[in-house]
Request: fold
Amino acid sequence: MRSMFVENEVLKPNARTLRDLRDAAGRLPVETASLLYAQIQRRTEAALIRSAGEREEISDPGALAEWNRKCRRRFTACIGGIPRPLEEGRAQITGVLHRSFFSVEKLVLETSPGSFLTANVYIPENGAACHPAVLVCIGHTDDGKADPEYQYLAQCLVRQGILAFLMDPPGEGDRSELADAATGFQPMFGCSGEHDLLDWKAKLTGWSLASYFIRDGLAAVRYLARRPDVDAKRIGITGHSGGGTQTALLMMEAGEQFACAAPCAYITDMRAMLEEGVDPDNEMVWPGSVEAGLDYVDFLAQMAGKPLMLLTCQEDYFPREGTERTFRQAERLWQAAGTGILPEMKTAVSGHAYAPSLAEEAARFFQKIFSAQPYVGTRPGVSGGNLPMRGKDFCPLTRGELSCTGKPLIRAVPGMRTIRMEIRDDLMRIRAEAEEKLPEDPDQRKKNLESLILASRIRANIPARVYAEGICAQMGYRCLLWRPEEGLWNNGLLLRDWRQGDRPLPSVIALWPEGILRIDEHSCWVHRQLRSGKQVLIADLSGWGTMRPARIGSAEMDTGWGTYYKLNAWLIGLGDSICGMRIRQTLAAVRMLQQSGLAEEGGISLAAWGEASRYAEYASLLSGVPAVTDGEYQTYEEILSETFHDQTSTFDWALPGILRCLSEEGHRRRPAAFEEQEGLPGPKESGFRA
Reply:
């Protein structure tokens, strides 16, 4: 192997072991720790600048209405659609609690055939026959509707003569869908963990857990509208944190059904979220939404011209500078609506919470809009409708008292359809449709996959840059850098037995988690490949090994809401993902070898271990380059089928929409070039699997 630095120069020994080579390949001549984050920033900024320019053109009600229709179409496409609720789902009152100035109905409401939600309906006892109503969306709390924060809000509302509807989101209150049906034991840690587990399953089929949150909210509004004690023209909505997310979602999808809204401690903007490294929860991550130009103001805009109050917290982790920018943009859109109404904003000096002062502001806001009849204090010992009511007038109830079923809903309703079951049924429907359509175009699966992984981002010309080379025992090595796509580098260590001289050799691209940094764990395999007459490229793809990014925030790199989670969430918003990026970078590594003249006779093959097996198999499907893998990864089938799939590294495998474009297994024969050598089991060939 001749030197690429000096023509006809023979390489000099300068290393003794693969560990020495690991260190050499780790001394990169370029900065890599911030590359992935910087690229996400550039792509996000470009998308938001495009949409900001479009938004600036809105100057009248007609343009505003057209923009809102466009945003709604874009958003609905991003979450894969919405499973529509029943027009009149069964509603059962399982009990009623009577207190000094209000009563609470405990409700079980059917949202779709066999699926149910639980809710508490707070009814004012002020003598009115018909009340305005507010849908209260609950944020992340295991207590759900029984959380004292929301109870205080509900009692503030009923005190002002407003009926309050508090519903449990999936995974909260009575609705722990993962609780054991026999014992009621809940093995997941917190409602956020349950949301994540369900959302990853939903995303694989092209949906989002947000779709089901919206479905629940629509069912609740329909139920309220047909209650005889509710004025269907006076229904508002509020919610805090994750409930603020639900409020925004329902404003986007059903803004015309609400007379007013007061989202709390959620609204900011994408720029601030990215700059401050805030990690959104899974149901707040909508594939392609940022690339489509959607920002927080677009959710508010669906209510433009109607009364709106932003409720914010001074020390919130949802960045206030983003809230203030969004509020200023909203003011301009409300002016374009031409109704003479402008949005309002109230701020509490508190951390992330629906603070009591905000609950009181919300109650006053809704009472003013609805002109509701407040409670006037006719019962002994209870003051009238004036707020605040902190102290003896606040009547908190226990979770047990407010439970609609006395036990987890999944135990109370035998045979209930859970969201996990609905997602699985959706996969079956997708497969049935695919079997009808795909035989007409056998290449459609590949086209769909290329679109899904954004294969068009791969650079047409990918030269290799050699930054170190030498001899290590019997191995000649070259340290390579190449750009698989604009703004990113990949790193690689190319090895061959120098005793093979200059004769052409077949190439193997080796992929395993952390790549070059874990080369010593695969040293036996590497030596056997070289001895059998191959050259080996150990590749570091984005986020792996020497391409590992700098830590963002205080959380560990690999934890549930750590650096990789954040990066992947932001990429998903751009219609991308770490998984999709690594698949196309595997394809780019093949192209680099071909174009740099480093691929010699005998062709190129892929060998992969662990989660890298997935990348190699998909790259093989698209390129025709043979691959052998150890197959040690959970298939998407397993993730959907198992209640508790492996969540160790979701960012490595999450590929939103994959089961909509590839829904059945492919089969390949084992390439002869990868037969086991000298009795050592190598990586086995794993047929392409969905």
